[in-house]
Design goal:
Structural class: alpha/beta
Low-confidence stretches: 1-6
Bound molecules: adenosine-5'-diphosphate
Number of strands: 22
CATH architecture of the largest domain: 3-Layer(aba) Sandwich
Largest sheet: 7 strands, mixed
Number of domains: 2
CATH superfamily of the largest domain: Aldehyde Dehydrogenase, Chain A, domain 1
Helix content: 25-40%
CATH class of the largest domain: Alpha Beta
Number of helices: 15
Radius of gyration: 24 Å
Strand order of the largest sheet: 14-15-16-13-12-18-19
Strand content: 15-25%
Shape: globular
Length: about 500
């Protein structure tokens, strides 16, 4: 296997989408450009699918669910997903280059976006193979005599998966593979900025697995209305979505007329409470690093740093040093850890939010603009804002850039109140010398997940989901698999137990 360093350079992905087992262009032949964000140059094209293409894909998925035995043949699904895992392994370096080309993610940090999701395919194949799809719920007294109840876990049906651009290959896998293993059929709609991580997935399914026609479809498009067509179609039983809270609300509303099951992983504005007994030399360089790798384009990023007033200047100095020396630049260079923002529009949004912070009284400690040595590419300097008003726009809105907002506090109670002052509740972090005290603070954070002293909450074996306006339902863990199943209870005479 060659390494990516041996074959650096942009690599265009497959232009085609996968509908009903056929790799195809949209009938008009229309395409849209895919831009490499590090050079601002067109790297290639993707087919520009239409609502009609989406409707064909949904029809194919519906037929595959209703008329084939995909939903009932667990051994065959295990066989197909094992093939998919092996096929992804064979295509690993190709997928990595496509990812770097369309996202601008630094090669050095692609492990969590390539190796991890490939491993997740194997995980879900094994998990699904060993899952208990039938549970005996015991005998219950009823007016008609004793009833034995058994719970049958059955697939939900046709699952529509809508994914964002920040970690596209990972989320394409995370949203579809457990759904497939559980016996559902799937229509994937990748984000406009990252069509190839989706189209390559479709190509690999078509060319290198026995997954039957219609079971897995990918509709590539540059139009939001194509995602909207998926989230509103009555033939779709469930939508799984990762993206902005605004789009999540639209998807919920579109699914309401047909009461669609909806799994949403939305925005975040996570807080990192640094307690006064924390090891600042451990916690704060890592906090700055987390803001810069992936260019801050991560929903779980703790982007609000809450520092005790007694050690405020000391904390700011550590993060400032880290950010000023952070290796920003060409994502193909293995020394760099921060690449560009994904698009010019995203860069403008980040720079605009930094300006709004300064306008509302925040102090710019470092960064705030475009790196001088990088005139090409959508780069933003690692940026530290101090004295941020917890109610200001920059403290309330998700920035999706390499930006930390520092807020001082006096007591643990005040820190918790500031952390919870958000419409979001995705993740949180606490750093402290006394782990019991840190745990008490973590328990009072109104978020789906918390990391204490850098020990991450995130992993395939543990449920991950947001509270408040950060989401509905879970990915990962037993909870994450059950999202793609209905629990059907069948009551029957108690003859089986005699
Ligand atoms: P961003 O604003 O950062 O591009 P979004 O949350 O809007 O992120 O987009 C994430 C995904 O949602 C993309 O695949 C996009 O095409 C899709 N999308 C956008 N608008 C809608 C909508 N109204 N209904 C369904 N999907 C949508």
């Amino acid at each position: 296997m060659t390494s990516v360093q041996d074959e650096t350079g942009v690599l265009a992905g497959d232009e085609r989408m996968l509908i009903d087992g056929e790799l195809q262009h949209t009938s008009s032949g229309a395409t849209f450009d895919v831009i490499h964000p590090a050079s601002e140059e067109v790297a290639g094209q993707a087919t520009d699918g239409t609502v009609a293409d989406m409707e064909r894909a949904i029809g194919a998925a519906r037929r595959a669910f209703d008329e084939t035995d995909w939903s009932r043949d667990l051994d065959f699904r295990y066989h197909c997903l094992t093939q998919l895992h092996e096929a992804f392994e064979r295509n690993k370096e190709h997928l990595r280059r496509v990812l770097i080309t369309e996202v601008g993610c630094p090669v050095k940090v692609t492990g969590s976006q390539i190796e991890s999701p490939i491993e997740e395919v194997r995980h879900w194949a094994e998990h699904g193979k060993n899952f208990e799809y039938l549970a005996d719920n015991g005998v219950h007294d009823t007016p008609m005599g004793p009833a034995r109840r058994k719970i049958h876990y059955e697939p939900v049906g046709v699952v529509g998966a809508i994914t964002p651009w920040n970690v596209p290959f990972y989320l394409n896998v995370a949203e579809t593979v457990p759904a497939l293993m559980a016996g559902n059929t799937v229509v994937l709609k990748p984000a406009q900025l990252t069509p190839w991580s989706g189209s390559e997935y479709g190509r690999i399914v078509a060319e290198e697995t026995d997954i039957p026609a219609g079971v897995f479809n990918v509709v590539v498009s540059n139009a939001n209305e194509v995602g909207a067509a998926l989230s509103g179609d009555p033939r779709v039983d469930m939508i799984t979505f990762t993206g902005s809270t605004a789009t999540g609300r639209a998807i919920l509303a579109a699914g309401a007329p047909t009461v669609k099951k909806t799994l949403l992983e939305l925005g975040g504005k996570s807080a990192h409470i640094v307690l006064d007994d924390a090891d600042f030399t451990m916690a704060l360089p890592m906090a700055a690093l987390m803001a810069c790798v992936m260019s801050g384009q991560s929903c779980i990023l703790p982007s609000r740093i809450l520092l005790p007033r007694s050690r405020y200047d000391e904390g700011i100095e550590i993060m400032k040093n880290m950010m000023e020396n952070f290796p920003v630049g060409d994502p193909w260079d293995p020394n760099n850890m921060q690449g560009p923002q994904i698009s010019q529009g995203q860069r403008e949004k980040v720079l605009g939010l930094i300006k709004s912070g300064i306008d509302s009284g925040a102090r710019l400690v470092t960064g705030g603009g475009i790196p001088e040595h990088l005139p090409k590419g959508y780069y933003v300097q690692p940026t530290l804002l101090a004295d941020v008003d917890p109610n200001s726009q920059v403290a309330q809105e998700e920035i999706f850039g390499p930006v930390l907002s520092v807020i001082p506090y006096d007591t643990d109670d005040e820190a918790i109140a500031i952390a919870n002052n958000s419409i979001y509740g995705l993740s949180g972090e606490v750093s402290g010398g006394d782990v019991d005290r840190a745990l008490e603070v973590a328990k009072r954070m109104r978020t789906g997940n918390v990391t204490i002293n850098g020990k991450s909450h995130f992993g395939i074996g543990s449920p991950f989901g947001g509270t408040k306006q950060s989401g509905l339902g879970y990915r990962n863990g037993e909870e994450g698999y059950k999202e793609y199943l209905e629990a059907k209870t069948i009551g029957m005479p108690d003859t089986a137990a005699l």
